[in-house]
Amino acid sequence: MEVLEAIKNRRSVRSYATRPIPPDVFARLRQALRYAPSACNYQPWHFVLVTDEQLRGKVAQASAGQHWMADAPVIVAACCLPEQAYPNMGGTVNSGAVDVAIALDHLTLAAVAEGLGTCWIGAFDEGQVKRVLGIPATVRLVALTPLGYPASPDLNHPVDESRRKPQAEIFSSNRYGSM
């Protein structure tokens, strides 16, 4: 699948089949995370791949009770190691959360190319999820995503152009606000 096709076909999947992810596919998805770019190539991340059914249930409960997440065979907890990140992105910001977000986005696109679904989860109680998964206090949980085959195959269709902002509203040429 071409990258732009994967981008257009990516959806937030909230219903998963019980079908397991084959080991070779899971290995390619881990590589998508591993090969993602990061500021200064510091790779300030750690990904907890939650496959245990009981732990998935506890993570889902700590994610605003979004129990459907636990139906996926894997929940990825995307963590940032702030002390290992580039400290001055833009002169002021630690790059860790951005670096992790880039890696997680690589995963979401690789998943589409493999016929799998994901759903970016930002509604979670960081402290609770960290306790459930044994994530150290110095590590930041940036986002979660379930990972698995969509329960309905008709979820993989191109983006509805009518639901996207017009290009004139989101792009400028050379200077902000000018076309």
Task: Summarize the structure in short.
This protein has 179 residues and is an alpha+beta fold.
Number of domains: 1
What is the assigned CATH homologous superfamily?
Answer: NADH Oxidase
Q: Count the beta strands.
A: 4
Rg to the nearest angstrom?
A: 17 Å
Report the uncertain regions. Answer: none
Task: State the separation between the terminal residues, measured CA to CA.
Answer: 33 Å
The amount of helix comes to 25-40%
Mean pLDDT: 94
* Name of the CATH first level: Alpha Beta
The structure class reads: alpha+beta
Order of strands in the sheet with most strands:
1-2-4-3
Put simply, the count of helices is 6
Shape, please?
Answer: globular
- The CATH architecture name reads 3-Layer(aba) Sandwich
Record keyword descriptors for this entry:
alpha+beta; about 180 residues; NADH Oxidase
Describe the structure.
- By secondary structure, the chain is an alpha+beta fold.
- It has one domain: NADH Oxidase.
- The protein has helices at residues 3-9, 23-34, 53-61, 96-113, 126-133, 167-170, and strands at 45-50, 74-80, 117-118, 140-148.
- The chain has a four-stranded antiparallel sheet with strand order 1-2-4-3, with helices on both faces.
- It is globular.
- The mean pLDDT is 94.
